Amino acid sequence: MSETLFQLEVRPNIPEKLRGLEELANDLLYSWDRDVRGLFYRLDDELWETCNHNLKVFLRRVAQNKLDEAIKDHLFMEEYSRVMSSFRTYHEKGVSPAITAHLDPESDQVAYFCAEFGLHESFPIYSGGLGILAGDHCKAASDLGVPFVGVGLLYRQGYFTQFIDGNGSQQAQYTPTNFDELVVQPACDSDGNAFYVQVEIEARPVKLKVWMARAGHILLYLLDSDLEENSSEDRSITFQLYGGDSTTRIQQEIVLGIGGVRALRALGIEPTIWHINEGHAAFQIPERCREYIDQGMDFNSALELVAAGTVFTTHTPVSAGHDIFEADQMTRYFKDYIKSLNIDPETFLALGQSPNNNTSFNMTALALRGSRFHNGVSRIHGGVASSMEGYVWPQIPPDENPISYVTNGVHVPTFLAREWVNLFDMRFREWHSELNNPTFWDCIDTIPNHRYWSLRQELKAQMLEDVNKRTRRRFQRAGFSEAQLKRLTSYTGEPEQNVLVIGFARRFATYKRAALLFSDLQRLARLLNNPKRPVMIVFAGKAHPRDKPGQELIRTIHEYSLRPEFIGKIIMLEGYDMALARKLVTGVDVWLNTPEYPLEASGTSGQKAAINGVINLSVLDGWWGEGFDGENGWAIHPHASNADDTLRDQEESADLLDILENEVIPLYYDYGSQGYSSSWVKLSKASMKSCLPRFNAQRMVVDYVKNFYAPARYQYSRLSAKDCAPARKLSDWKTKVREQWGDVSIRRVDDIRQQIHDGDSLPIVVHAGLNGLVPEDVVVECVVGGRNDGGEFVSSEQHQFRHTGLQDDEHVFELYLKPNNSGLNHYKLRIYPWHELLSHPFEMGYMLWI
Ligand SMILES: *Cc1c(COP(=O)(O)O)cnc(C)c1O
Predict the structure, then answer these.
(1) Distance, CA 135 to ligand 1 centroid (Å)?
(2) pLDDT value at position 367?
(3) Which atom of ligand 1 is nearest to the CA of 578?
(4) Which tens digit of pLDDT belongs to each residue from 408-428?
(5) Same domain, 403 and 416
């Protein structure tokens, strides 16, 4: 028998003079306000670490005498007043003109749905890139004053904590969180009462509690099924992020999509713009349709209305990454629900149809069909998504279909090191309001080189100290001897040594090719071990517990890291989270990314690195395809992969080692008489000043507001005017087009001249059989352009035909074509259905060419 270990938390009485600390601890603004965190750190730096930077837990455990001493400490109290007053100023700040130019803060409301939100390590409801992007979106929305709420799930166990044992095996630890210890509180309905919402899961009612988290100006509503009233099965729906199997997944998505809409309604929130961030939340579409259908509308008109106000962002560049449910699973979960939509099951299942998956239901397809505004997350990824998801608009060439892109950006106050913030505050006072202004950031050049270099070295020293602690902790636990620990930390333990540090931290998915560096071990060892020019590489990242190849990669890196030629030079860190990410992206010298082109949707860690003056060395994929300008870092050009993946990997790996050997290492160690490399500083400054204004989250949110939210709002208000008559009209028109389009035909009847003289125009005449459609239902168009290097046609102008009459049941359309350019032109002729209420001219997916 072992005795019980009881626990007793003795909570301090917070002195009246420090009451504001409670307010600070209950607002996730602390996740991007370093001064708030600094205040807590000053009170007790040890407790700060042991409670994992959780302010709420900190305030419950901090010793009474620390607080009592603090109120007698003038310097502390001054800092406290300063932090409180800037906290108040932040909350009183109005909406940015960049937003009011497009949205009305009084009447507009954005509801942003996502399966994960990564705001801070103390709030573990995120796994990686998607969540942190969502967190950054919320933070920038708050900074700009966008009328905005987030909707997600409150996971009892969140994502796993990663440990790596002495053999390099990843151990996933799930720790249940006590919601008391998170920055959440029960949400109240519009009458101020706590409330529940309900969803049906296989005909069982499941009750959901709604929690609320505050993050500056915005609120986050999070759903939780872990309630006594629910069966133990249902209680576990919201246990783990990306845990369980496809049953858990569909249940979570019902809770998020359907429960999320019901929660907003109960709260009295009336969104005018709905943003679905990745397919997980797409069940909000049928739920919002059901609301209109309950009021007597037909399904198709309801879908028009819902889609008009909806923005969908896709993040996954491979179709295998999309959520797909089996048709029988869908029928089981949605049998009764489909009846409430007044449609037959086939119509419902068709919303999720995608090629090669005829019997299953694809959440990305649902999201695309239920939204009119769609985007990928970088220029390259926008193109990939247009091709991959082009099946939704089968007759439209992918480069013209409605999927466009907004390149991701990172939240600067979250990821910019405190030392840079202090320097900017001192030298460039107004920098906060100039984030998106590229010319402003030329000011980086005015920072003296030696100052710049020493600041970077200081950040590196802090990072190495942290790496040292983490490495010792990890290997002590694994039972390594002190002599081994010494070898493992030979470069991190002595911060006065100068060493070039390369960072590689990301999800260990195989396409990210973490092991690309290791194709030529001898050469790598030679590069790292030159005593005059030492180089260290730090790895970190989690693999999903079901991703065996990803875990194998972690083991591989671990094994390399223990080889005699690499020990202390290659480090594999465990427990990648936002805290470690902040250390690495601010402290390393070079940020390495080696994805297989074109599988990196965007990548954001390289952006975090760049704004801190870290130099990117990356495959030209994702955001770096736009970010690299030839003078702000290094690029590995993707080799064609159509022949042989192994060969491509070898070639790209050789390129990588060449760049390291011939460019990176010599540049870093090109010390002049002043004791540092001024050419390195030049490149680092170029990285910072070119990336900061372009790849920050405010730029991203303003792009969304301008190009997606405002048009969606406009489109929704058009269709919902006059009791939604326009939505019905558009829906009826689409029904008619769907019935008739199959037999529409078009042919050219003029004599097809091939030359004209400058100043003349070319008469073109086509005859179209409209099969019952009228000329106003279609556009006949001439697309003029040229050929690109690859010989493909690229359009540059469009000219519309005029309807001029009827001849033998065929409609006559004529155009007098005058191309903008003389010389050799190419052109194509096409017809497509068109209605003035459409959101995008090609949204029906129909188009015929001559
Ligand atoms: C930024 C970040 C990511 C995403 O970075 P990628 O470049 O997309 O791999 C993942 N995890 C953490 C903890 C991060 O901070």
Answers:
(1) 12
(2) 98
(3) 13
(4) 999 999 999 999 999 999 999
(5) no
